[in-house]
Amino acid sequence: MVIHLHGDLGAGKTSLVRGILHALGHAGRVKSPTYTLLESYHAGGLELRHFDLYRLRDEAEWEEAGFRDEFDGNSILFIEWPEKAHVPPADIEIDLAILQQGRRAMIKGNTATGKACLNQL
User: Hey, what domains does the chain have and what are their CATH numbers?
Assistant: First the structure.
């Protein structure tokens, strides 16, 4: 499953992923992949990958990093700043916005898989 995370800097994209991982039982530290571009986790019997593509300079950098191998259909992929690379289309898109008081999350299922997942929530 591919989940695209949209929102300005500081909107809470990484915090949302951190919350999901902790809800799945991950007890360790969940750090932002801002500099590493990718962090991998195993939680709740699932393989999860968290990408932060903000620092990518161009499409070639994405290709050279070999991240395409992570899109093998066996993991849940959270992708911050998906517009920075040619990544697979989203099953679910989450758009976070900073409000005067808190945040707003708009969640959209784009595929049958994404819609089925959202219906379970």
Answer: 2-120 (3.40.50.300)
For the purposes of burial, counting CB atoms within 10 Å of the CB of 86, is it exposed (0-12), middle (13-18) or buried (19 or more)? exposed
Q: Which of 7, 83, 11, 69 is nearest to 38 (CA)?
A: 69
Buried b (16+ CB within 10 A) or exposed e, 54-78: eebeeeeebeeeebeebeeeebbbb
Q: pLDDT per residue over 65-92, tens digit each?
A: 777 778 878 899 999 999 988 889 999 9
Return the biggest CA–CA distance within the chain.
41
pTM for the predicted model, two decimal places: 0.91
